[in-house]
Amino acid sequence: MSFDYHAVSGDYQYQALHSGHPMQRFWHGGKLTMIDRLICPHLNSDSRLLEIGCGAGNLLLRASVRGSFPVALDLSLQALSFVRSRLTEAVSSEEAPRGFASTQAIGEQLPLADGSFDCVLLSEVIEHLEAPQISIQEAARVLRPGGRLLVTTPNYRSLWPLMEWAVDHLNMAPKMGGEQHISRFHPANLRLLLTELGLGIEYFGTIYNLSPFLSLVFPESAKRQLARELHSRSLLGMILVAVAVKL
């Protein structure tokens, strides 16, 4: 692993969501909309959920419905420290999870029991891995039968390569092309990877086709466009989104 993930601030995604460039704020906020639409309706007060590569924990906190038990997993101790502070605050809120846990680990070797989670989030992680199929297989292992795995990753059959180039050259994020992103996905090979591991596809589509660009001038229109992108399951957006079910 050549990129130093410990050098990335533990609150990076949180700051991008709340105080980043307008397109960054929309980009990270759109992922919360994705969680609301695709994951939260399937969770309840007994749900155990895991985020692999949780970063600042934006998605994990969004999916932590009342009474659920979220588990944060990341390689970065800075990220885990930040997520623990957020989860500690969350358990004292009105819509509190019943508790939480965190662990430093990598997706290829999860220190977790078989069939122990109702939902696993694996968002924009697999493009960082030399053998992404191992992490997806591990995620499937810790899911109970009928549990859901959310996978997102850049779509290299879209405008994503241009976006990646622009973000890298404008220094808007830690460098991605050639450093962080070492495995490339498009609709066909991501779908094939999931089905070859014995997972059923419940949802397959993309987000961030026109919506990020609209966010620069028409923020409300961008939100409506994002909702249409989620509904249409188009394959043209810059981020692939799959929800797979363990059969």
What do these coordinates show?
This protein is α/β, with parallel strands linked by helices and 247 residues long. It has a single domain, classed as Rossmann fold (3-Layer(aba) Sandwich). The chain contains nine helices and seven strands; from the N terminus they run ααβαβαββαβααβααβ. The protein has a seven-stranded mixed beta sheet with strand order 3-2-1-4-5-7-6, sandwiched between helices. The radius of gyration is 17 Å and the shape is globular.
Write the layout of secondary structure elements.
Layout: H1 12-19, H2 22-38, E1 48-52, H3 58-63, E2 69-74, H4 77-90, E3 101-104, E4 117-123, H5 132-142, E5 143-154, H6 160-169, H7 187-196, E6 199-207, H8 211-214, H9 219-232, E7 239-246
Helix pairs in contact: 1-2, 2-9
